[in-house]
């Protein structure tokens, strides 16, 4: 049996699903953010696999841009989390309920 | 050989994704994420996109995970006690896992009959650096500029966010 597109897509889908489950299950906001990054990485696997088996360059270039945007996003997101922690002294999402009620 | 490597790297990726979710300690989660990134970049090498494999290690493992570890150690948060699942959560989890089971069963039933493109007949265009330069400086010239500007804006945003404003009063 040779490895084809479907196997790569299966890995990408599994990693995405696990990341999504982590976003739903975990309570620590930093771990939730890490699981979001995991979902992003899983989607890049699918893009690169599509690009490879399609014989085009566009998926690869798209992943290149995703990497750049992810770096910017992580920097801003972590700065927001640090600012939040300075004000509220917690990173547990159950206690971050200022918008509730 | 490539099949064996694919299985190794995919198991590494999936296993460390599980470890990210199931570790109680956030530092362990970050390190598991690091291992998973190594698996992902191995998959990229198997897909003949070597530049992205190197960038994955440089940008994600070098910058993003290091930043995560910095913040985790800076904040020094406690684990936090686990709350019991409420009733709606349990119902939702049951329904979600039922749907997932249906999906998995359907997937495995149709796995042999799915169309599978052949990698040996397709030329790996993502393998050479020249192709990247060609695309980035012709077709994708405007996105490159926009992304550069985005990085500048995010740098300014981080500086503004982490600055302490004295005269602003207590804005809740």
Give a brief description.
The complex is a heterodimer of chains A (101) and B (172). Chain A contains 3 helices and no strands. Chain A is mainly alpha-helical and 101 residues long.
Report on this model:
- Chain A contains 3 helices and no strands.
- Chain A has about 100 residues and is mostly helical.
- Chain A has one domain (about 5-90): Helix Hairpins, CATH 1.10.287.3510.
- With about 170 residues, chain B is mainly α.
- Among the domains of chain B are: about 1-75, Four Helix Bundle (Hemerythrin (Met), subunit A) (Up-down Bundle), CATH 1.20.120.1200; about 130-165.
- Chain B is built from 6 helices and no strands.
- In chain B, helix 2 (about 25-45) runs antiparallel to helix 3.
- At the A-B interface, helix 1, helix 2 and helix 3 of A face helix 1, helix 2, helix 3, helix 5 and helix 6 of B.
């Amino acid at each position: 049996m040779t490895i084809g597109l479907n196997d790569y897509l299966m890995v990408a889908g599994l990693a995405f699903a696990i990341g999504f489950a982590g976003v739903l299950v975990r309570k620590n906001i930093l771990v939730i953010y890490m699981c979001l990054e995991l979902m992003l990485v899983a989607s890049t696997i699918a893009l690169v696999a599509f690009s490879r088996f399609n014989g085009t360059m566009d998926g690869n270039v798209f992943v290149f841009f995703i990497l750049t945007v992810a770096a910017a996003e992580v920097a801003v997101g972590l700065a927001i989390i640090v600012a939040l922690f300075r004000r509220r002294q917690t990173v547990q999402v159950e206690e971050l309920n200022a918008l509730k009620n | 050989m490539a099949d064996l490597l694919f299985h190794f790297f995919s198991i590494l990726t999936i296993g460390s994704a599980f470890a990210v979710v199931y570790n109680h300690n956030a530092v362990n989660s970050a390190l598991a994420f690091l291992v998973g990134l190594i698996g992902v970049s191995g998959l990229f090498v198997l897909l003949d996109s070597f530049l992205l494999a190197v960038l994955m290690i440089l940008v994600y493992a070098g910058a993003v995970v290091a930043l995560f570890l910095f913040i985790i150690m800076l904040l020094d948060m406690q684990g936090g006690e686990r709350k019991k699942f409420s009733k709606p959560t349990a119902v939702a989890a049951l329904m979600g896992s039922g749907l997932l089971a249906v999906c998995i069963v359907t997937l495995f039933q149709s796995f042999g009959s799915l169309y599978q493109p052949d990698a040996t007949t397709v030329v790996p265009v993502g393998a050479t650096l020249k192709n990247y330069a060609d695309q980035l400086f012709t077709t994708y010239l405007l996105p490159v500029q926009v992304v550069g500007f985005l990085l500048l804006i995010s740098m300014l945003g981080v500086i503004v966010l982490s600055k302490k404003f004295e005269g602003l009063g207590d804005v809740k």
